[in-house]
Amino acid sequence: MNRKALIYSGIAKLANSNRSILGIVSCGSFSRDDMDQYSDIDLYIFTNSVSDFSDENNNDWLDALGERMYIRIFNNIEEGVYKIKLIIVGGLMFDLTIVSGRKFSLIGLYLKLINMGLNGIIPKRVSRLMESNINTFYETIRRGYEIHLDKIGIGKILNKAVKYTEKKNKSTFSLTKKQFENSYNFFWQSCYTASIKLIRGDYFYVILVYDHYLKRELIKMIEWGECIAQGDHLDFFYNAYKIKSWGGIRLYDSLKGTLLANDLIEMQRSLLYMIEIYQEYSRRVSENFKFSRNIKFEQFVIDFIKEAMLNTHEK
Question: Given this model, what pLDDT does residue 26 score?
Answer without folding.
Answer: 94
